[in-house]
Write a structure and sequence with these properties.
Distance between the termini: 25 Å
Strand content: 15-25%
Strand order of the largest sheet: 3-2-1-4-5-6-11
CATH superfamily of the domain at 2-158 and 197-227 and 274-288: NAD(P)-binding Rossmann-like Domain
Radius of gyration: 19 Å
Largest sheet: 7 strands, parallel
Number of helices: 9
CATH architecture of the domain at 2-158 and 197-227 and 274-288: 3-Layer(aba) Sandwich
CATH class of the domain at 2-158 and 197-227 and 274-288: Alpha Beta
Shape: globular
Amino acid sequence: MRILVLGSTGYLGGHVVERLRALTGAQVLGGGRSADADHRVDLATARPEQLAKTLASAAPDTVVNCAGATGGDPVTLAEVNARGPAVLCAALRDAAPAARLVHLGSAAEYGPGVPGTPDTETAPTSPVGPYGATKLAGTAAVTASGLDAVVLRIGNPVGPGAPAGGLPGRVAALLRAAGRDPRAVLRLGDLSAHRDFVDVRDVARAVERAATAPGPLPPVLNIGGGAAVPVREMVHGLARHAGFPGRIEESADGPDGPAGLAGSARSARVSWQCSDITAAADALGWRPEHTLDDALAALWEGGGTP
C-alpha cells in the first residue's frame, strides 16, 4: 500500500508519517515544500495539471492531506486551506481517481458551540474568522469532489512536539524559560474558554484508521477528545508537570488578547467548543486512548515527533 502524506514535516504530518510507517506493508511517501520531501508539493501555488503529474509519479493508493495554515493573513489562509484542497481534488480526479483521500479539517469550521451540546457532523457551520472559513471551504471542496474521500475535523491537538504557535506549545516554552523561580509570573489572557483537546497521537491513529478502512466512509468525521475542557485547566495542568512554583495571571487585556488563546485569531469569539465523536467510533472503531494529562505529560517531557 502506497500512502502519500502531504504536509509531512508539520506537527500533525510528522506524527501521521510516524504512525503510518509502522504499518506492515505500507510504503509512506512524504510530500511538501521541504527539500527532503519525496515529492515537492506546494498546494498554495501548484497548478492542477502540475500536481497531477506529481501524483501520477507517486502512484498512491491513499493520499493524506495534513497541509494547512493556522495563522497568517486571509490571503495566505485561503491559498493553503481553501485553494489547496480544491487543486488536490482536481489533480486526483485526473491522476489517481481510485485513491482514497483523507483530509484534515478543523473543529473551527463549526464556530461557536452551544454549552452542553457537542457538535455532530451535521451541526450548522458558522466559522467566525478567516481560519475556520477557509478550512470550511476546503472541506466543501473535498466532500463535493466525488472522490473516495473523508474529512477528519480535528479538535485542539496537544501532545509531544506541540509548536509554539499554539497555546500548549507556547505555555510550555514560557514554563521552560521561567524554570523553578518562585517569583516568576506567567501573564496570559482570559483562560475561561472551553476547548475539546485531543492528543496528537490519537489524531495520527484516527488517520491510520481512515486510510486503511475498507469501503466508503462518511464524508466528515469529528476527531476530538469528546469533552469541553476549560483552557485554564490545560494551562495549570501543564504547569503542574513543569513543577512551576510561580504564579499564573489572567487578564482580558493580557498579551494573549481577549480570547486568552495565545493570540490565536482562529479561536476568537468562541467561548465553548466540543465535538461529538460517536460517528468516528462507529465508522472507524476509534476513540481517544490518551487523556489530556497524558498529552500534557508527553509535551512537557519532550517525547515523540516534533
